[in-house]
Specification:
This protein is an all-alpha fold and about 200 residues long. Helix content is about 75%, strand content about 0%. The chain has nine helices and two strands. Strands 1-2 form a two-stranded antiparallel sheet. The chain is flat.
Length: about 200
């Protein structure tokens, strides 16, 4: 849904991308491994404000593609590497809440499962379409990676401001993760329906 904002965000990041024009895009992708790990450590050590600052730097994920396109270095492996690192980052930032005992694993694990399903269904649909001689972009649904990451950011921000708030015995991050899981399950259904209709 929020993917429509990507061009505007990339426009803001253009000056940074120009500064990195001599850097290998794959090296920028690998740098993206650092910030989820730092976020994980911040959450584990209850340094939530610093974790939020670190989280913002996940935006480096956009820079590798921008630099690759600007310098003519777009490769199939680059896309593969970027997608693989995205999955690592998704797991790390979501699982941090479970390991830090902020969100129950009963909530974290279903969210992780549907998050990975959303990505898998898209890639599998597009691959199957290519096998049938068609080109599809299967990024349908109300929850994509951007919505997922913004929800994680918002959940930690709310927890930092209102650490003792509970509703139905659930804290704010648990409520946010629960809602995200429900919307993600719906997104899985949307993508399966899209695949059924178009393959």
């Amino acid at each position: 849904m929020l993917t429509v904002l990507k061009p505007a965000v990339e426009k803001v990041l253009q000056p940074v991308a120009r500064l990195l024009k001599n850097v290998d895009p794959n090296a920028i992708s690998l740098l993206g491994l650092l910030f989820p790990v730092l976020f994980f450590l911040c959450v584990m050590h209850k340094m939530y404000a610093l974790g939020l600052v670190v989280f913002i730097f996940n935006g480096v994920d956009l820079l590798d593609g921008m630099v690759a396109r600007a310098t003519g270095k777009v490769t199939a492996f680059g896309g593969f590497l970027d997608s693989t690192i995205d999955r690592f980052a998704d797991f790390t930032v979501i699982a941090a809440f479970g390991f830090a005992h902020i969100v129950s694993w009963n909530i974290v694990l279903p969210l992780l499962m549907v998050s990975f399903l959303i990505s898998y269904i898209r890639s599998r649909t597009e691959l199957a379409a290519l096998g049938n001689g068609k080109k599809l972009v299967a990024s349908v649904g109300i929850v994509e990676r951007t919505e997922r990451l913004l929800t994680v950011f918002g959940a930690l921000l709310l927890y930092l401001i209102f650490p003792d708030f509970t509703l139905w015995s659930l804290n704010l991050p648990e409520l946010a993760f629960g809602l995200l899981t429900i919307l993600s399950v719906y997104t899985v259904g949307q993508r399966v329906a899209f695949a059924y209709k178009n393959l």
